[in-house]
Amino acid sequence: MKKLLLTFLLAVSIISTSCTRTNGPEKEQDIVILFTNDIHCGVDDNIGYAKVAAYKKQLLEQNPYVTLVDNGDAVQGDTIGALSKGEDIIGIMNMVGYDVAGLGNHEFDYGMSQFTKFSTSLDGGYICANFRSLETGKLVCPPYKIIKYGKKKVAYVGVDTPETMIQVSVATFKDKSGKQIYSFGWDDKRQTLYQDVQEAIDQARKEGADYVILMAHLGEKNSRKEWTSKELIANIEGADLLIDGHTHSVIHGIKAKDKGGKEITIVQTGTKLSHLGKATILPAGEISVELLENLDVEPDAKVTNLIADIRKQHAAKLETPLGTVDFPLPAKNKDGSWIVRSKESNLANLVSDAFRITFNADIGLVNGGGLRNNIEQGTVTYGAVFSVLPFGNQICVAKVKGKTLLDELEYGVRDLPNKSGGLLHVSGMTFTVDTSIPTSTKTDSKGLFTGVAGAYRIKDVKVNGAPIDLDKEYLVAGLDFFLKNNGGGHSFADAELLPIESETDCEVLAAYVQKLGKIPDEYKDPKGQGRIRFK
């Protein structure tokens, strides 16, 4: 894999970062930029890829200056992406006609080797000004792409959240010895991201860019305010528009002042193609933005057929029945907001039970961010289970001291009552959370949990009905994402991993459901069984 990555990095260093493309005759016309973000494999949800492709073609018939861009998190989120480790999504994006794409954290869910494959397969290519190899000191992707529209040049500058380092398996960005070999500009002073983006803007301007469009995957809110889209704008200058992503927000256009006092518009399209963004640069230089909810076009037949063919290839496995359930098992509400990132749920209990019981452990753990979909009432298919656990994580079994368990639970509830993918759901345990106590968890410069400095929010922790023994070693079964690979910033520093090889988390849950046949009524309450209580 290392040889493949170095070959890719060499290729990037040879290609000019401008990656210019001439588009149409040299006359003054509107420049139209269509944009998407956080599609998460929603290929035919809402507007759908087929209509996006058709709309782009329709606009091109009237005006040659039309570009389609994506702001990350396209390849993960449903079975159509997970079963091919994202490759089917790249094929669909190529047919839709994406001209360039920025990075999201989920572009790395299938590992660096797979991301490298995406980079060479996506016709428009990826850009990112802050994703760097620490071994070579060079950027992994071109920082920007310049597209020429007649006499005008527009630079598209990619920006990914530094929190990507902890929002996927941390091992993704390390070598076999555990040494970190990639960076997204995470530093103690929170300045590297700004410097990387400013350098890209300045270089693009030197290459003659008349306009600079930031393609960011930051969001308007996250756990580190320094890395929001507004804070980025406040610390750089020279951009004309920021197209955002990451938080799945529908932002029609908010203003933020850059370092020089210029007002910059920030816009974001939501998720699953609920909207298509459209920015128009008028010949006089004014930029307007709008979010389209409906497209009055016939879906592109080629894209429709490609998606249908892919679904047909996967259908037999996905439709395999495993069991039945007389009630829903939700991970999220009907409006798409996450249940499992702030409170207990019957689905999380079922999954953590499957891990604990399958491996005869004392405790089963699953993080809220690892549960991606609901299981609906009726027949439970393999596809339904796969949509819940689409990442292909392995199950680890480890000996973990009670004190470490207590601390990791504390770290998992640090953001409550706000949502957190790091919230640990439990089997074989119960605990109470007092959210009136401010979190005192500490992290290092890379965002990894290092300990608790003050009062604990976690109270009354019990293992199989008995108070937790802080000196005792418990047998824990859970995802390698957090038990082994520091996902979400969890450390589990003194966990002793046992040499147990497992199938993926999805296969473990599928076998458990198949063994049950019918999911019992003990899971009927969507709020769970009182494993996580609030004071």
Walk me through what this model shows:
This protein is of the alpha/beta class. The chain has two domains: 2-9 and 17-309, Metallo-dependent phosphatases (Purple Acid Phosphatase, chain A, domain 2, 4-Layer Sandwich); 321-534, 5'-nucleotidase,  domain 2 (Alpha-Beta Complex). 26% of the residues lie in helices and 24% in strands. The strands form seven sheets. Strands 4-3-2-1-13-14 form a six-stranded mixed beta sheet, with helices on one face. Strands 6-7-9-10-12-11 form a six-stranded mixed beta sheet. Strands 19-16-25-18-26 form a five-stranded mixed beta sheet. Helix 2 (49-62) links the parallel strand 1 and strand 2. Helix 4 (87-96) runs antiparallel to helix 9 (301-318). It is globular. The model is unreliable at 1-25 (pLDDT under 50).
Features:
about 525 residues; alpha/beta; Purple Acid Phosphatase, chain A, domain 2; 5'-nucleotidase,  domain 2; six-stranded mixed sheet; about 25% helix; globular; disordered N terminus
Topology of this protein?
Blueprint: H1 2-14, E1 31-36, H2 49-62, E2 66-70, H3 79-82, H4 87-96, E3 100-102, H5 112-121, E4 126-127, E5 132-133, E6 144-149, E7 152-160, H6 164-167, E8 182-183, H7 192-206, E9 211-217, H8 229-234, E10 241-243, E11 250-257, E12 263-269, E13 276-281, E14 287-292, H9 301-318, E15 321-325, H10 346-358, E16 363-367, E17 378-381, H11 382-388, E18 395-401, H12 402-412, E19 424-427, E20 429-433, E21 441-443, E22 449-452, E23 458-463, E24 466-467, E25 473-479, H13 480-483, E26 496-497, H14 505-516, E27 532-534
Parallel strand pairs: 1-2, 2-3, 3-4, 7-9, 9-10, 10-12, 16-25, 20-27
Antiparallel strand pairs: 1-13, 5-8, 6-7, 11-12, 13-14, 15-17, 16-19, 18-25, 18-26, 20-23, 21-22, 23-24
Helix pairs in contact: 1-5, 2-4, 4-9, 10-14, 11-14
